[in-house]
Write a structure and sequence with these properties.
The protein has 11 helices and 10 strands. With about 300 residues, the protein is of the alpha+beta class. The strands form 2 sheets. Strands 1, 2, 3, 4, 5, 6, 7 and 9 form an 8-stranded antiparallel beta sheet that branches. The protein has a two-stranded antiparallel ribbon with strand order 8-10. A hairpin with a 2-residue loop joins strand 4 and strand 5. Helix 1 packs across helix 3 and helix 5 crosses helix 6.
Length: about 300
């Protein structure tokens, strides 16, 4: 059943199923992926109890707060995003998240670097370069409405079938407007890959051996630095601690394996987690959903 823009707007204003917009006692999440948008991950959630652990994404994190307010630390400062605001976190940048009051509800999109770069490159009035968002919380009603409606159309399409052209048009228009109004062009590109050679060697070791129980001494040795100097230098160059970076690599690897039928306990061990419980806590702390919820959402991918 296809839906029109008016229905999409009504959906975009609605909180997650089972809870009213005024809040409720339980957390509620809905997750899915849009394959045709470079495996775009989509999340609709209301969190009352859940708090994100400090983590990074290799994608952008863009969304709209539907109700309540979210508090998060980003770039060394605490930010509060109230209802109606737009949030934007750049790739590879450490952040967390929790309700600023009783709860918050939001719609989130996690577009790949390639997808956002392609949108930026299509804008005639914009210089070439990496599109980095300037501030993490923005008050822009037009962008918020556009992102919410596009997200709602994607949700409807994944669940019951919406007009593909309507989805494509709404998402492209909303993302283009967000990039045009609220990003800057960085000729040097994203942070990751710009590190000094010693730190790059250590990062590549973590990339290759994320499934192993790596130590600080091993990473520092790869960099040719003392462990204390390495710890400071890695955070300065990469933007996160070595442990946060390694956890991010493990989560990324797990997402790939969750597309298959491998038992969750085997996925956990294959990606370097102690056991399934450790895997579930770490995964939800970074993504807001459990590995099982992620697997089910990935199988709904449109």
């Amino acid at each position: 059943m296809a839906i029109d823009q008016q229905t999409a707007y009504a959906l975009s204003r609605r909180g997650p199923e089972g809870l009213s917009a005024s809040g409720g006692p339980a957390d509620s999440v809905c997750f899915w992926r849009e394959r045709r948008f470079d495996d775009l991950e989509c999340l609709k959630a209301r969190f009352t109890r859940h708090s994100y652990a400090p983590h990074v994404h290799d994608t952008f994190a863009l969304g709209v707060i539907l109700g309540g307010a979210e508090a998060f630390r980003y770039r060394g400062a605490r930010h509060v995003a109230p209802a109606g605001s737009v949030v934007a976190v750049n790739p590879d940048e450490l952040h967390d998240g929790a309700p600023a009051g009783d709860s918050f509800a939001y719609r989130m999109l996690y577009p790949s670097v390639a997808l956002v770069q392609a949108v930026a490159d299509d804008l005639d009035d914009r210089p070439a370069g990496f599109p980095a968002f300037i501030t993490p919380v923005m008050e822009d009603a037009e962008v918020a409405c556009g992102l919410s409606e596009a997200h709602a159309l994607m949700e409807a399409h994944s669940m019951m079938g919406a007009d593909r052209l309507a989805v494509d048009q709404a998402f492209t228009a909303a993302l283009s407007l967000l990039v045009r109004r609220h990003s800057e062009s960085r000729p040097q590109g994203r942070r990751l890959g710009q590190e000094a050679a010693p730190i790059r060697r250590a990062r590549r070791l973590a990339d290759d051996l994320y499934m192993q129980d790596l130590t600080l001494d091993e990473l520092a040795a790869a960099a040719g630095l003392s462990r204390y100097y390495f710890l400071r230098a890695f955070r300065r160059e990469v933007g996160v601690t070595p442990h946060a970076y390694l956890t991010g690599r493990r989560i990324a690897a797990a997402k790939g394996l969750l597309a298959g039928d491998q038992p969750l306990s085997e996925v956990a061990l294959a990606c370097g987690f102690y056991d399934q419980s450790h895997f579930s806590r770490s995964f939800k702390g970074c993504t807001g959903v459990t590995p099982g919820q992620y697997r089910r959402g990935a199988r709904l991918a449109a």
